[in-house]
Write a structure and sequence with these properties.
It is a multi-pass membrane protein. This protein has 731 residues and is an alpha/beta fold. Helices cover 48% and strands 12% of the residues. It is globular and about 105 Å long.
Length: 731
Amino acid sequence: MAFVPAGVSDTMNAKEDAKWLQWVTRQFETIAGEDRVINLQEFKAALNVKESFFAERFFTLFDSDGSGTITLQELQEGLTLLIHGNPMDKLKFLFQVYDVDGNGSIDPDELRTVLQSCLQESSISLPDEKLDQLTLALFESADKDCSGDITFEELRDELQCFPGVMENLTISAAHWLTPPTTQGHLHRPRPLTAAYWHNHRSQLLCLATYLGLHVLLFALAASAHRDLGISIMVAKGCGQCLNFDCSFIVVLMLRRCLTWLRTTWLAQVLPLDQNIQFHQLMGYVVVGLSLVHTVAHIVNFALQAQSESSSYQFWELLLTTRPGIGWVHGLASPTGVALLLLLLLMFTCSSSCIRRNGHFEVFYWTHLSYLPMWVLLILHGPNFWKWLLVPGTVFFLEKVIGLVVSRMAALSIVEVNLLPSKVTHLLIKRPPLFNYRPGDYLYLNIPTIARYEWHPFTISSAPEQKDTIWLHIRSEGQWTNRLYESFKTSDLVDCDSKRLSRSLKMRRSQGRPQVSELSPENHQFCNIKCYINGPYGTPTRRIFASEHAVLIGAGIGITPFASILQSIMYRYQKRKRTCPNCQHSWMEGIQDDDMKLHKVDFIWINRHQRAFEWFVSLLTKLEMDQAEETQEGRFLELHMYMTSALSKNDMKAIGLQMALDLVAKKEKKDSITGLQTRTQPGRPDWNKVFQKVAAEDKGKVQVFFCGSPALAKVLRAHCERFGFRFFQENF
C-alpha cells in the first residue's frame, strides 16, 4: 500500500510529470491487455479492495463517459485528480463516492452502506447496533441544519474538524495506482558516533576483547610451532582458538548464571542481553576456524604423503590411527573427521529456516550433539580438557540443579483458555518457592504433548499473583499447535471430582480481574501434569530501574509486558491511600528502591481486532486504576494500533474513522476494544512517537521491545537516532 502526499504536483517538474505518465501508461497496459481498456473485474482485481462497493464506486467515477470500461485517458484524468489534485477536488470525489444515488446529498442509509464497507475494508467486526450508532453519530454531527441530508458544504465543514485529513486524502491501492516516488531512507547512525556508542558500547568492547584474545592465542600457538612449517602453524593456531571457543561457547547459555549476573553490577558492563547473538557468533567462528584447521592439516598430510621418508599414504594419515597422531591411541585424525561432520550437521540444523518453519525438534535434537563433540574433542586434542574443566563443571552443575528442581515435584495445569488467533492461555499451579520478576520466562514440559521436549515461554502473570502462573502461548510450531489442538478437542483434559472447587478457591483468592469473558467451549478446568524449569531473567528486568520506559509489544509480544503491567497495577494499589473522613484518595510517591519509574508508555500493535481480547481486561483495569488522576498525573499511557485498519487519509476509511472518533469522544470508550484509549488505525509513525516521548522530558528513556526481528531493526535505528537505550526481548 502506498500513501502519496498532497501537493506533489507543486514540486514535480515537467520531467517528473513525464516519468509519472509513462509509469501510468505501463501499468495500464499490464492491466488492460490487448483490448486497451479496463473493465470492472480487472479494476477490482488491480485495486485489491476487500469490499466491492468501493471498487464499483471508484470505477463508476473513473468511467466518465459511462461506457462500462476505463480508457487510458480516463485513468490518467482520475489519477491526476486523486494524486495531484487540490483538497477541494479530492473532497468532491469523496462526496460522489458517498452519494450512491447521485442526487447531490447523502442520506443516513447511504452513509450506513458506506460505513459498513469501511468496516470490511479495515477488517473490523462490529455488531449492527454499533454500526447504527456510528452512522447516526457521524450523520448528526455533519447534518448541521437537521435537514435529513448531508450536503457537500456540510461534509466539507465536518472534515475541517479533522486537521490534515483533507490535504492528504488519497486512495491506498495496488502499486499500479500510485506514481513512483522517491522513498525516504531511515536515518541510521554511523558506527562509533555518540548515539551508536551509547547503545553498543558493551558489545563493541566485548567484541574487541574477543578478537584480541583470538589474535593472541593464534600467535602464541603458531610461534610455538614455527619450525614445522606454515600449514602446521595455521592448524595449531586455529586449534588453540578452538580450544577456547568450544569450551566458552557453553558459558553463554548458562541461564541460571546469567540470571544471577543480572542482579549484580556486571549487568551494567557485560552485554548479557546479547548472549544468544554472541553464542551464534561464536558458532560461526567455530565453523570457520574448524574448516581452516582441517584444510591446514590436509595440506600437511598431502605434503607428508609425497615425502620419500613417509611410510603412510594420504588416506591413512587422514582417516586411520596407524600413524599414531594424537595423544590417545592416535585418534586425532578419525576424531577430527567425526568432529567436522557433527559440527556441520549441527550448524546446518541450527539455521533459522529449520528453527522457525515448524522443525524445532530437528534443531533441538541435533544441538544435543555437543555432548559427543566434547568427548571427541578431549580425545582429539591433548589440552582441550584443561579449557573445558571450569566451564564444563559449571555447566554440569547448572544442568543437574535444573533437572533436580524441575523434576522435584510435578505441577499441574489447572485451567485453560483458548483465545483468538490460536493462543493458548495456561494457568499452572505455582510452586511454593518459585520466585520470579516481571518479564521472566521459564521452560515448560508437558509429557502428554512430548515427553522430552522443553520450550521457553514468557510468564504473563505478575509475581504478586501467588496461586498460579500464567502463560500465553501462540501456536506457531509443531509443539504449540499440538498443545492448542489437544485442548480444543479435550483429549488431554483430566476431569477430577474436585476441579471446580479448586478453581473456585483460586478465583476468590486472586480476584481474577484480568481474564476476559470466554465461552464455555474455550474455557476448561483440568488437572494435567507438567514440569517447569526456571525462572530466567530477561532485559525487561531493567524496566523498574528506568525513569521513562517505553514498552512496545507486537502481537503476542505483549506477554512480558502483561506481567510488568500487572505488577505495576499491584504496586500502584499498594501505594493508594484514602482519607477515612472525606474519602479523598491520593497516591504516595511511586519512587522507591525497586521502582524509579516516572512514566510508562505502553504501545501494543496488532494486525487483527480479536487479538486485543487477549489482555483487554487487564488494560481496562489499569485504566480504571488511573481514572481519578489528571492526564498530566498519569504515569501509564496506553497506545493501541491496528495495522489492518486503513488510516483517516484513505477514502475507504475516512468516514469510519471520523465516526469512531465521535463515538469515542461521546462515550469515553473505544468501539473496537472497549478501552478508554482510542485504537489508532495503521502502523505507528515512529518519528512522531519518539519525538513526543523526548518532548515529555520525564528522565532517561529506555525502550523495551518484544516482537518480530524486522520491526526490532527499525526501532533500534530510531532509538539510536534519538539517543534512547534499546532492549529487545529474546531467548
